[in-house]
Amino acid sequence: MKVSPLAPKEFATLQALEGVKMQTVEAGIKYSGRDDVLLMMFDEGTSVAGVFTKSKCASAPVDHCKQILSKGVAKALVVNSGNANAFTGVKGASATRDTAFMAAKAVGCEADEVYLASTGVIGEPLDASKFDGVMQGLAQACESDNWFKAASAIMTTDTYPKLASRTVENSDILINGIAKGSGMIMPDMATMLSFIVTDANISKDVLQALLSQHTETSFNSISVDSDTSTSDTVLLFATGKKGEAITSLDDDRIASFSQALNEVMHDLSMQIVRDGEGASKHVQIDVTGAVSDISAKKIALSIANSPLVKTAIAGEDANWGRVVMAIGKAGEEADRDKIAIWFGDVRVAVSGERDPDYSEEEASLAMKGDEIFLKVDLNLGNGEARVWTCDLTKEYVAINGDYRS
Amino acid sequence: MKVSPLAPKEFATLQALEGVKMQTVEAGIKYSGRDDVLLMMFDEGTSVAGVFTKSKCASAPVDHCKQILSKGVAKALVVNSGNANAFTGVKGASATRDTAFMAAKAVGCEADEVYLASTGVIGEPLDASKFDGVMQGLAQACESDNWFKAASAIMTTDTYPKLASRTVENSDILINGIAKGSGMIMPDMATMLSFIVTDANISKDVLQALLSQHTETSFNSISVDSDTSTSDTVLLFATGKKGEAITSLDDDRIASFSQALNEVMHDLSMQIVRDGEGASKHVQIDVTGAVSDISAKKIALSIANSPLVKTAIAGEDANWGRVVMAIGKAGEEADRDKIAIWFGDVRVAVSGERDPDYSEEEASLAMKGDEIFLKVDLNLGNGEARVWTCDLTKEYVAINGDYRS
User: Fold this and answer.
1) Alpha helices for B37-161 (secondary structure H)
2) Ranges of each domain in chain A
3) What percentage of residues in chain B have a pLDDT greater than 70?
4) Chain B interface includes A361 (CB < 8 A)
5) Interface predicted TM-score of the whole assembly (ipTM), two decimals
């Protein structure tokens, strides 16, 4: 597997974080010669928040996590790659129960304190007995500095592990995160997983509010190909080792924590886009002047998801006509004759027509390189949004269409 | 340009239809060495109905047609290929007025009896003076048997002209139609145009009702790549030469006319899908058991537009997991554990999991050939829908991404 040309030059080094230990192992779920199961163990007092796929065909592990989230206590996290345990009917739910039970026994907790995520093939029953032989050993071998191994074990078609870390300003509070996702996961679908741990002392409700808020502008503002997985899961754990408990969003300490959390989530989500299947360009799309932020985001995602826009970017073509098309099809309020469009710093269209001063040469220059900036001003109101995507290349079609032939 | 492998083996031969004449000419709008302007002239008493793009960035000709449609009288139709006259601001509206005026003068009618459509590059001002030199000559040279020339002159990246014809059962009423569309039109976007003429005697309101009804299950049930053009236009003209006037939907003669019209529109819409850019397979998707027909159609289009599903079909991969994903992301009511999925006659999933009797070999066989049938039963209600699409191939990316490089 060729590493994405947009991969980071070097990986973030994640320090040990008080209250969490982890280990990985090869359980032979699908892959051979690599670890495919991750166990994280959390100290007593760890709170948790989660955000999940909106799919109506959510996987069994997503169902499990949603069910136990209201309790808000986490003692363990088990993640496997190679099998998504999605669309597996009653067998899937049963495999989930068995896995949670085994992990609970190995770790010494209740099954509703064990969080689960699975990614890989869908429709294939997950054989939970594979975990049976390894769970006890994993629990005994957990260490605090295994972040890189953890990020690697949850990969599927990812071409590199994804890690990010920040220290909260003016404090010793640490936030470590890992993620996986690469557009569509061979051989089935895109699954985006992210697990973030902090040693901050924050109640589950406050955690949930912060996680939901920042998910909207990070993981929910990226798109590789508009397809939604059955398994998308973001979990945020707070081990509570540092400082007095934060139980309200009005707490003075929230601002700096929120800022650092946002940075970790932004960092991880950018790493996912940059590992988009077949991606050769990273694209940032800004929409301003919409009637609302929600409307701006719909228009931005309509542009980000348009096959025509994405293929034009792959071809380094400043094809603003396709951007106009994508604005028009979004179904959101827009006045054709007020729209302005930029590629990089070059305004290519204004007041509903081609910018009279537009230079094709300058616009083409803005399409070179691997970072593309596209901006649309609707000139209607104050709504704005920023989303990120990648281009659509022949490599994407090859990855998703060729592997059985 | 290589002709689509899904092109019809032979073209329909359209007979002369009383009350309409047409001619084409090379006006040099963009292409050279081929005709790029079509003029149709209608006899006194021709009524008209129209359906247009829902894009908020509709082209100037679409604006024009919408404005004059309530009058419901057509004397002429002018179509040009090579320039869409979209996103061209006040210049675009002015070019439209000038063109309608020139045609009205040549044909001898009012400007609000002249219908217009343009397809091609967007954002490029359309030089209406190009029509000035040719309009008079076109009007004088109109003939009744020029349907093939007409279908050819409106092509852009189409690889073949699209024609269809039916005679209404138990009558001598004829319905002739032409269309163009090929996914995305180089160098800008998908434009789907269709012009249908009948010699039936039908009032504009009845025409409009029939056109809207059948558009929903034909042109609005096909998708090449989910992108919506600024210029999509379907016009239906009735010259009124045959029989007594039909002025009510309750008229006994409606059923057979409606049936023949539906067949013409279905035929033309299938020809558009089969000319989808880079298409190697024609895909029919049936969704049954939804809570409503509207819900069924949304789910069917979610499947049809999924890049993952489309690349899997290109790779002849019976990847039903991706179909589950596309159902789940549609946002419509679905119960994972009730869903059944077929490729051809092979049921691959049932009751929310892999069909225990499913044979990978048989499923793979169903993916061979150039006609693919996909069926989903949601087992919730009586809602159903059928849509058509094509696969997503590297050729699509090449056509839309490579042409400037």
Assistant:
1) 60-68, 89-107, 129-141, 147-153
2) 20-273, 282-401
3) 96
4) no
5) 0.77
